Amino acid sequence: MPSPQLDTDLVAAAIIADDQQASSEHTHHGSCLNCGATLAGKYCHQCGQVSHLHRSLFHIAEELLHGLFHFDTKMWRTIPALFFNPGRLTREYIDGKRVRYVAPLPLYLFLIFLMFFVFSMTAHFAGHDEKEAASDKAVVSDVSKGKSATSEKPAAPASSATSTETSSVDDDKERATTHSNPELAAIPKIVADLESDSETYKNTPHWLQEKLNHAAANPELVIYKMKGSASKFALLLLPLALPVMWLLFPFSRKHLMFDHCVFILYSLSFAACAMMILSFMSLAGFAGTGFMLVSLAMPLHMYRQLKGAYLLSRFHAVWRTVALMLAAFISLAFYATALLAFSL
Questions:
Q1: Mean of the per-residue pLDDT values for the chain?
Q2: Rounded to whole angstroms, what are the CA distances from 25 to 13, 29, 41, 44, 97?
Q3: Alpha carbon of 178 to those of 138, 181, 341: distances in Å?
């Protein structure tokens, strides 16, 4: 009669054999399907791919959710830190604690893409609301005109001068309505101000005069081109800001250009988030409140990021914040001018 110990050993051996067989099947015979390296765990030690791969429709949905929320648990750590503790975020990334956070350049590019997507969506909804309001006003005016025409008898024919004057007033009203959007009205106003200064306009090259007149006649096209170019040239803000950051810490061996680059990219990422919030608040009818909040948040965020990232005292952080804000306005003005020049 076989001993109980022998039976126990046989059962244990069978279980181990089954586990090894299942493990071999799951890991595709112990080699990584991506690079061919021998597997020693859940992930390939050479390329990082998961050893156990699924071939099911459910796994496709799983990968989609993983792609959205695994950009990552890193994203859910990075965005709150970017808003509430930007100095620590920048300092830790510079010091090498990078696994927890999204790298600054991918984060900036993602938020820039998202920002212009939000701009296009909010502009579409705002334009749709304006068109509906304009059509409602047109219907009301048509009804009122019809009532006045039926209630009043035709008087003596007016003079041609009066009719001409009336039509000119209507044309002016129509132009004002057409360019009621501040973005569209800005370009014709710039050209009109330039033309009012006769000396400056005379000294302007002829080809530039033609482009300016074309822009004044077609402001919608110019704004469309500027919005398209803004996303393409967004990386120009980095080389514009790097010399400024170097001037704030001249000849410093402690702070490298890499550190300044990380600081700028995280700062620009926060600015992109702020512009998206402002866009949503404008769509909701709180443009003034949103502009005031963003105007207060930007220097405060910059101060906290400078103080935490470069380990500065309050005084040194304050004066660098003031200098950096002035440089930011100049850089944005140069950037906007370049966009306008490329869009004419």
A1: 75
A2: 18, 6, 14, 16, 37
A3: 13, 8, 24
